[in-house]
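Working notes for the structural subgroup meeting. M.R. asked for a predicted model of this chain before we commit to crystallization trials. I am recording the input and output together here so anyone reviewing the notebook later can reproduce the run.

Input as submitted:
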Amino acid sequence: MVGPPKSAAGCRVVALDAETVRVLTRHRERQEQLSATAGTRWRDSGYVFTTAGGEPLRPDYLTGRIRRLVAAHRSGCTTCGTAPPPSRWPRTPT
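Returned structure, recorded in token form:
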């Protein structure tokens, strides 16, 4: 469920560096192109990260996606352009 912050402390301003602003601007431009292509099928959910149809992502989607990317990285996946880390990740305290 999405709603207003529970308290005033939950309403914050987040500082973004120029590169992050550039990436988010490009992302918004791509979403606008998807919206134009989809026409009435596009759902303007107001979210930054959505499905190709504008629907909000399921909460477990990003968790699963990150787990798959980390696993691919650890195994030296050639299709994602990564190599296995030189040591075990995350590092355990010594």
